Prior knowledge:
Blueprint: E1 2-7, H1 15-34, E2 38-43, H2 45-48, H3 55-72, E3 80-83, H4 89-98, H5 103-107, H6 110-116, H7 125-139, E4 145-147, H8 153-170, E5 187-189, H9 224-233, H10 252-265, H11 269-276, H12 281-306, H13 310-338
Parallel strand pairs: 1-2, 2-3, 4-5
The structure holds adenosine-5'-triphosphate and magnesium ion.
Adenosine-5'-triphosphate binds near residues 10, 20 and 209.
Amino acid sequence: MRVVSGIQPTGKPHLGNYLGAIVNYVKLQDEAQAAGGECFIFLADLHAISQPHDPAELTQNTREMVATLVACGVDPSKTILFNQAQVPAHAEMQWLLNGTARMGWLNRMTQWKDKAGKNREGQSVALFTYPVLQAADVLLYQATHVPVGEDQKQHLELARDIAQKFNTDFCPPNEDGSDAPLFTLPEPYIPPAAARIMSLRDGTSKMSKSDPSEMSRISLTDDADTVMKKVKKAKTDPEPLPSEEAGLEGRAEAKNLVGIYSALTGQSVGQVLAEHGGQGFGAFKPALGEVLVETLRPINERFMELKDDLEALDAILARGAAQAREHGLPTLDATYKALGLVRG
Ligand code: ATP
Ligand code: MG
């Protein structure tokens, strides 16, 4: 079992990152260990430069992201935790796979369409080729399980397509006729609930670090007052909560808040509505706020202890990077070789 996933240090991680991805990093690091496998979690700093950014902020966000992940339970003694920039094999592998990825495949990526908007010509080349780097990230380590939110499912499918085409084009069968694929096809590991937490300002767009409005998301490092304020101001409709799940259809904001409550408490949506159905948001929002504050309290406390020890945070990344470089080497070498590239 090889678990591989990444998160961009593009800002403060939020509730969507937590419920969609980070809780599964923590769960899978233990499962991988129990199965004698490995778990790799990386900060996707090479992805982060695909959009305009401030270098000093990127440096700070990178360290804060390490502190937040550790505060959430990612344990550097169980997980190989590192940043891409210290493992050149990610960038090398992307270039090697650029020969296999097709323009048409990338053109169909909804994240590219969403992030580029109407101004495609003005976007960086990196934003367009982003999914090839993502394929490189997971194929380099022969990932079997990739814990991600729903929004990354399409990129994972692309990684599988790239792996499959490379295996077909460059990996001749063994002498006995059996297949000799170089790349393992990675499987997405997407939580059944909470795979897509929506913005607090607009129930039709996902909660994102890159949303310009702070009020659109709950950051994992928000204090209790901020959390309560954001929940209180969250967009809703004027109707009370329904008592059955079907009543949430067509009510994107209500559905999102109930979904968050359900994910945080472990109750099903049906149970949440059985308890809170008939309540207006004036009553439900404070209840949700409380649950959020209780979830974030230990994360906040741990984050505050960790965040200023830059030496310790950098040491975690350096140690993880050394391990990652070693693990990635055999596949990188085999990829160069399969392509017929001559190296010393
Ligand atoms: P950005 O806006 O810079 O792209 P992001 O909030 O989308 O930031 P990423 O670093 O791109 O965060 O994604 C990290 C992980 O969090 C991915 O596995 C992604 O699928 C997951 N994720 C991101 N947003 C959500 C969300 N709203 N709900 C559930 N999972 C999410
Ligand atoms: Mg994203």
